[in-house]
Write a structure and sequence with these properties.
This is Non-specific lipid-transfer protein. GO terms for molecular function: lipid binding. Belongs to the plant LTP family. It contains six helices and no strands. By secondary structure, the chain is mainly alpha-helical. The chain is globular. The N terminus is likely disordered.
Length: 109
Protein backbone atom coordinates (compact mmCIF):
# COMPACT_ATOMS: atom_id res chain seq x y z
CA UNK A 1 0.00 0.00 0.00
CA UNK A 2 1.60 3.25 -1.10
CA UNK A 3 0.00 6.56 -0.26
CA UNK A 4 1.01 9.47 -2.47
CA UNK A 5 -1.35 11.88 -0.72
CA UNK A 6 0.06 15.11 -2.12
CA UNK A 7 -1.92 18.28 -1.96
CA UNK A 8 -1.20 20.90 -4.54
CA UNK A 9 0.68 20.64 -7.79
CA UNK A 10 3.88 18.97 -6.59
CA UNK A 11 3.81 15.25 -5.90
CA UNK A 12 5.25 14.16 -2.58
CA UNK A 13 8.65 12.51 -2.71
CA UNK A 14 7.87 10.37 0.33
CA UNK A 15 5.39 7.49 0.50
CA UNK A 16 3.52 5.82 3.34
CA UNK A 17 5.80 2.83 2.80
CA UNK A 18 8.83 5.08 3.46
CA UNK A 19 7.18 6.33 6.64
CA UNK A 20 6.28 2.82 7.83
CA UNK A 21 9.83 1.65 7.20
CA UNK A 22 11.27 4.57 9.18
CA UNK A 23 8.77 4.25 12.04
CA UNK A 24 8.85 0.47 12.42
CA UNK A 25 11.98 0.35 14.64
CA UNK A 26 10.22 2.71 17.08
CA UNK A 27 7.12 0.60 17.65
CA UNK A 28 8.53 -1.76 20.29
CA UNK A 29 9.80 1.21 22.29
CA UNK A 30 6.47 3.02 21.85
CA UNK A 31 4.63 -0.07 23.13
CA UNK A 32 6.49 0.25 26.42
CA UNK A 33 9.22 -2.33 25.84
CA UNK A 34 12.77 -1.65 27.02
CA UNK A 35 14.19 1.16 29.10
CA UNK A 36 11.94 4.23 29.07
CA UNK A 37 14.89 6.63 28.95
CA UNK A 38 16.73 4.90 26.09
CA UNK A 39 15.24 5.10 22.63
CA UNK A 40 16.78 2.35 20.46
CA UNK A 41 19.38 3.59 17.96
CA UNK A 42 17.46 2.00 15.05
CA UNK A 43 14.43 4.07 16.02
CA UNK A 44 16.50 7.26 16.08
CA UNK A 45 18.04 6.39 12.71
CA UNK A 46 14.55 5.85 11.28
CA UNK A 47 13.37 9.20 12.60
CA UNK A 48 16.44 10.92 11.13
CA UNK A 49 15.78 9.29 7.77
CA UNK A 50 12.16 10.39 7.91
CA UNK A 51 13.14 13.94 8.86
CA UNK A 52 15.68 14.05 6.03
CA UNK A 53 13.13 12.85 3.45
CA UNK A 54 10.23 15.07 4.55
CA UNK A 55 11.39 18.47 3.30
CA UNK A 56 8.43 19.95 1.44
CA UNK A 57 5.00 20.76 2.88
CA UNK A 58 3.57 17.88 0.82
CA UNK A 59 6.16 15.43 2.20
CA UNK A 60 5.47 16.57 5.76
CA UNK A 61 1.75 16.17 5.27
CA UNK A 62 2.15 12.66 3.85
CA UNK A 63 4.49 11.70 6.70
CA UNK A 64 2.15 13.11 9.32
CA UNK A 65 -0.95 11.42 7.91
CA UNK A 66 0.82 8.08 7.62
CA UNK A 67 2.23 8.29 11.15
CA UNK A 68 -1.22 9.21 12.46
CA UNK A 69 -2.68 6.12 10.79
CA UNK A 70 0.07 3.90 12.23
CA UNK A 71 -0.14 5.39 15.73
CA UNK A 72 -3.94 5.07 15.88
CA UNK A 73 -3.83 1.32 15.19
CA UNK A 74 -5.49 -0.07 18.35
CA UNK A 75 -3.70 -3.42 18.35
CA UNK A 76 -0.31 -1.67 18.63
CA UNK A 77 -1.22 -0.40 22.11
CA UNK A 78 1.24 2.50 21.92
CA UNK A 79 2.12 4.52 25.01
CA UNK A 80 1.51 8.22 24.36
CA UNK A 81 4.31 9.45 26.64
CA UNK A 82 6.83 7.30 24.79
CA UNK A 83 5.77 8.62 21.39
CA UNK A 84 6.12 12.18 22.67
CA UNK A 85 9.77 11.82 23.71
CA UNK A 86 11.17 10.05 20.65
CA UNK A 87 12.24 13.20 18.73
CA UNK A 88 13.76 14.85 21.80
CA UNK A 89 15.60 11.74 22.96
CA UNK A 90 16.84 11.06 19.42
CA UNK A 91 17.82 14.71 18.96
CA UNK A 92 15.93 14.87 15.69
CA UNK A 93 13.65 17.62 14.52
CA UNK A 94 10.27 16.53 13.22
CA UNK A 95 7.70 19.15 12.21
CA UNK A 96 4.99 17.74 14.48
CA UNK A 97 4.58 16.23 17.92
CA UNK A 98 4.50 12.44 17.77
CA UNK A 99 1.14 11.43 19.19
CA UNK A 100 -1.75 9.08 18.58
CA UNK A 101 -3.82 12.22 17.96
CA UNK A 102 -1.63 13.99 15.43
CA UNK A 103 -3.20 17.16 14.04
CA UNK A 104 -1.36 17.28 10.72
CA UNK A 105 -2.78 20.53 9.35
CA UNK A 106 -1.71 22.33 12.53
CA UNK A 107 1.95 21.42 12.04
CA UNK A 108 2.61 21.32 8.32
CA UNK A 109 1.03 24.53 7.08
Amino acid sequence: MICHCATGSNAAAISCEDVKHSAKPCLDYARGNGDEKTVPPKCCNGMRTLSDKAKTAEDKEVACKCLKKIFKTPMLNLVESRLNVIPQNCRVNVPFKLSKNLQCKEYVN
